[in-house]
Amino acid sequence: MTDSTPNIPLTLARRIRSYVLRQGHLSPAQQRGMDEFYPVYGLPYTGQPLDLPQIFGERAAQPLIVEIGFGMGTATAQIAQARPHDNFIGIEVHSPGVGSLLNIIAGQQIANLRVIRHDAVEVLENMIPAQSLAGIHVYFPDPWHKARHHKRRLIQAPFVKQLAERLRPGGYLHLATDWENYAEQMLAVLSAEPLLQNTVDGYAPKPDYRPTTKFETRGLKLGHGVWDLVFTRI
Asked: Which of 8, 12, 136, 210 is deepest in the core (most CB within 10 A)?
């Protein structure tokens, strides 16, 4: 598998990426997940709009939620299982997490969840049609906490506009971060996007469907904050 794609426009090839592609070490189980289950539950990057009937079969008409950067995928799987009437596609670039989630999907036979290992920006640009999503989740993206690296943060105005355009009217965008400075930036950027409106005044209570991760629990015990933002498409 590779993250390089032929015929990518030069503007995309030169843009600043919001992640560092660490190949990392795959455990034997994660490697097995990639080898055995990506052909079953993974979706190749094609640069063409998703064929939902081919992907989800009789479930294709169900609302589609996309999660960007699912990490090891445990929370993603829990959300998909808790919401069986929605379809989910998780996008992640790092192989260990992809392999881990594929093993969960296969082991628990999660019918409404599929995975794409590719750059989310390119997937959104080329594979997700406008006004096709019921929801988008972006949980704990890399905060790039040093000020000189803030330009690498995923949540910037152009990307948020792209997200908003993929949402159908009434669809929602749910972000979460444990960095207050990043939360402030997220709130400012989302509030400035004319296609979006906040569901509350400021930060939202954590929705019941978002599990509390082990990392998040540890941070809360140490007194760290977590900020959720939920906006909807006008």
From this structure: 136
